[in-house]
């Protein structure tokens, strides 16, 4: 096993070099936000969609668009609005009078990287159309089903400060996102660098294509081969089960605060995301630190709080922190 792991580790170090090239390109136009960029790459490599939450102006759109440029893929930004229809998203049949037949007009979902801006601005039927495409990687228009081109990644954003006129995503649908990433303000030092970069006489260099989509698809196969020890699997399931049955893990303080614990998707996505995180670190195996690094982003949208928790101002983040502080690290 040690010999095989050493070979795998060496292979990962060689195969993961391209992620440094992508990050270097993104730094041409992005200052700070390293965590957001890392999470975007994890979603891309682990085949998981991402929900980004943050106030406007934090470079979410720029980061996603720049990522698409760096890997030379098709990018579409879709602004979700209350009057958006499912056909505006996936496409529809158009009648051609000259040919006396219907033609397919494909919608913006037919791209590799989709930015669903302010997903909570549109009603449930539009959200459902997007989430179906995310889950099935295909779209039905009329009687025909069309496979979406890989790599396919959806980055959805929602604004946490304006709730009037919004349609919050149902909990069961939010669960389909691998990660929910909270995007914070940059530090003062980073904001000063941003001012220097973006208000200079010379505009920053454009992002160049340094990776081909085929490399991403190959990297996904390699990411799946990254070694995960049985102790890590036990650690992950202990964490997830502690959100469902806190009493069994000496977490009596959480009794009555959780209505619904994390789903089985949490365990699966935590391991998949940890493998991608190890790949970004040029490592062929997953460590407990990978799990701890991504635990908050994987779990925060999968725990439903009780009225008692809300009355006591307890957040999902508080519960997750308590779980990680209590469960022994292997």
CATH architecture of the largest domain: 3-Layer(aba) Sandwich
**Tally of separate domains:** 2
What is the chain-wise order of helices and strands? HHHEHEHEEEHEEEHEHHHEHHEHH
Shape: globular
* Main pleated-sheet profile: 5 strands, parallel
CATH topology of the largest domain: Rossmann fold
Runs in which pLDDT lies below 50 for 5 or more consecutive residues are: none
Oligomerization status of the protein chains? single chain
Count of runs of 4 or more consecutive helical residues: 14
List the helices and strands and how they pair.
Layout: H1 2-15, H2 17-26, H3 34-46, E1 50-53, H4 60-70, E2 75-79, H5 86-90, E3 91-96, E4 101-106, E5 113-117, H6 124-136, E6 138-141, E7 144-147, E8 153-158, H7 171-174, E9 179-182, H8 188-198, H9 213-224, H10 230-244, E10 258-260, H11 264-280, H12 288-299, E11 304-305, H13 307-311, H14 316-326
Parallel strand pairs: 1-8, 1-9, 2-5, 5-8
Antiparallel strand pairs: 3-4, 6-7, 10-11
